[in-house]
Every structure is written in C-alpha cells, then in structure tokens.
Design goal:
single chain, 84% helix
C-alpha cells in the first residue's frame, strides 16, 4: 500500500502546501524578530558587516546564520508553494 492508495495527488499537494505555509510562518517570525532586534533588514545587516563590528560574538554569529537561513528559506518555500499551486491547475 502506498500513500497514493490512501490520498489523492491533490490531497498530497494540499498537505505539502500547508506544511510549507507553516514553515513560511516560522521563517517570517524569525526574520521579523531579528529585524526588530537589530533595527535593520538582513541585507543592511550584511552590508554593514555587523558580525565583524560586534567582534564575532557567538550571539551575533548565531543570529546571522539563523537569519540567513530564514531569508533563504522564505525564498525557497515561496517558490515551492508557487510550483505546487501551478501544478494543481
């Protein structure tokens, strides 16, 4: 028995879209939290080289990695949702 025996392809796509939306929300929350913390966008954070200015402290390094991961995640997930929605049409 496979997943296709239990659910239709449309149901599977809808479940994937819902999971991607959940991740999108988590990435958005992280992005907004760090924008508020540093009072700038990630692009500005990188451009101003804040990690170096703050002497490469663990907190700033960790925030930078988490922020970058969130920004990349937002881009990736938005593309995946768009592709899944297009494939349903």
């Amino acid at each position: 028995m496979t997943i296709l025996d239990i659910a239709s392809m449309d149901e599977i796509k809808e479940a994937l879209i819902n999971e991607y939306k959940r991740k999108l929300m988590l990435y958005s929350i992280t992005n907004e939290r760090l924008k508020k913390k540093y009072k700038m966008t990630f692009h500005e954070f990188e451009k101003k080289n804040i990690v170096k200015k703050m002497n490469y402290t663990w907190e700033v390094e960790k925030d930078s990695m988490e922020w970058e991961h969130s920004i990349e995640g937002l881009k990736s997930i938005k593309k995946k949702i768009k592709l899944l929605k297009q494939s349903r049409e």
